From TrEMBL:
Keywords: Cell inner membrane, Cell membrane, Membrane, Transmembrane, Transmembrane helix, Transport
Identification of the protein by name: TRAP transporter small permease protein
Transmembrane annotation, as ranges: 21-39, 51-70, 91-113, 154-174
Compartment annotation: Cell inner membrane
Family to which the UniProt record says this protein belongs: Belongs to the TRAP transporter small permease family.
Residue ranges annotated for the Tripartite ATP-independent periplasmic transporters DctQ component domain, each copy included: 31-181
Any single Gene Ontology cellular-component annotation: plasma membrane
Function, in words: Part of the tripartite ATP-independent periplasmic (TRAP) transport system.
Predominant cellular place of this UniProt entry's protein: membrane
Amino acid sequence: MQRMMRGFIRGVDAVNYRLGRVMMYGIFVLMGVLLWSSVNKVFFLPSLWTLEMAQFVMVGYYVLGGPYSMQMGDHVRMDLLYGDWSVRKKAWVDMFTVLLLIFYLVVLLYGAISSTAYSLGYWQTEPLSYLFGVVTGTEEIGRLEQSSSAWRPYLWPVKVVMIVGFFLMILQCLSELCKDVLRLKGHEI
């Protein structure tokens, strides 16, 4: 069991570490889009796409970078109390809070799946089976949802990014849970 947990931890941490290192540079993409917007507003005609593109880039940056941030321990904690606790007490508290976080992320993932199914033209009550059918080719895509702005981009790409990000965050939470279990058993990580 310990070997499986360590393998799971290594695999999830490796994927999220590499993706997080790439997503760190997403801030430069965001800066580029906003710089382009500023230059166009001052010297040329304002671009219609820059505001929404900046929002989409920010969603990817935030959602896909979240698991990396969690892995590195860069998320917010109440260090006033947490910093003085023993390793075992930290592990117990982390296990409890990560279980709450997993519940929250599962709800967000289901919402993202439902929203993605809607953006692909599905208006029924079974979004999971519909998306599985789209992936396997047994379901057809309906009328694609577009933004109501003047640019009118399709919304499904950013919603798929949200699904991937929430799924990776759940995996990272499970990895952190496994690390806490190993710490409670007295193993080095």
